[in-house]
Amino acid sequence: MASIYNDLGVYNHDLGILDSTFYYYIKAENIYREIGDSMKMGELKFYQARVLFEKGLHIESESKVASVLQVLNNYPFSPIPFEANQLMGTCLLNQNDFEGAKKYLLEALALMQKDAKQNKILDLNRLKMAKSMLYYNLSEVSYYLEDYKEVTKYASTGLSFIIPEIPSLLKSVLNSGIAKAEFMDGLKSYSQTEFDYYIKQLENTYDEAAILTNSYVMNEMAMTIASLYLQDKDSIQAFNWAEKVYQLAVDRNIKVDQKNALEFLVSHQHYDNNSRVKEIITLSNDLAELDYATRNRFARIAYETERVATENDELRNVILMVVVTSLIIILGLSVGVFIYRLRNKNRELSFIHTAYMPVRADLQSVQSM
């Protein structure tokens, strides 16, 4: 029954009906809980976290991912930690915690590199796809950290894993990452940039995502295009693209994206009391960050604390093994030395006894005379 609920969740997810998707994943998880299958519970929790992220509920998604990582920490051959660490990184990226995001993405990369030589968790093609997506996410973190050279490096590395089986949209997204990084790097170094060339790549990626009805990529591309037009001093085009983001968010009922689009519009348009509106936006964001910092990181902190405790236990076990092994070696050497000395002593006694035998025979002969 659990697998049926899971399949229904996948079916509704493909249709973009996220509420029903979440419902069926919860139903499947509850059945696995009843039969005590922790690994399947962890997997279903991850699918729920992914739905929450797509709904724009990044904090809730982060909390659920933390619980997933706690559960699946005991299942080293599950592929879910690859994606879960990536999702955690993306959640943190959306909370502007760029260093935290990079930490989790690099953790995912380390897991993939570990499996790359053996392919016990993912086959080669699936691993290449996972790496391509991971390097895209790393390039996004670097973009927000304004390290545009690193953006190009990560995105180019992601492209090196592209194979025919990988969706072409991922290749387009990686190329768009390079395009926006090169444009911003040109602005940063006051170099002349071919804006039309770069913006066309992003617009083509948006169109490709629209054909595939990939709303997430559409939103990301449209918001980036709006920002780049603003950098190019073309406010009309910037606001047009921001309006697209807003309408897309309304159609999908994604409140966070609606808020971001409206903030972009009201922050850069000219009207009376513009400074007051900006102040309200800043205060609202500050309060949200404060709430996030004080209430919503507990699940992630619990996971990281438990992981440190586990690592400490493992380290203590390693130290204990080293100490025990050392004692065994020392004891073995001591016994060996003792046996060696005992054998030498026996040889000495044997030699003395052998040397004394002729003398003793002579003495006995003399006495008999």
From TrEMBL:
Domain of life assignment: Bacteria
SUPFAM superfamilies documented for this protein: TPR-like (SSF48452)
Gene3D superfamilies the record matches: Tetratricopeptide repeat domain
Keywords: Membrane, Transmembrane, Transmembrane helix
Record's keyword annotation contains Transmembrane: yes
Residue ranges of the TM segments: 318-340
Family annotation (InterPro entries): TPR-like_helical_dom_sf
Name of the protein: Tetratricopeptide repeat protein
Species in which this protein is naturally found: Myroides odoratimimus CCUG 10230
Lineage: Bacteria, Pseudomonadati, Bacteroidota, Flavobacteriia, Flavobacteriales
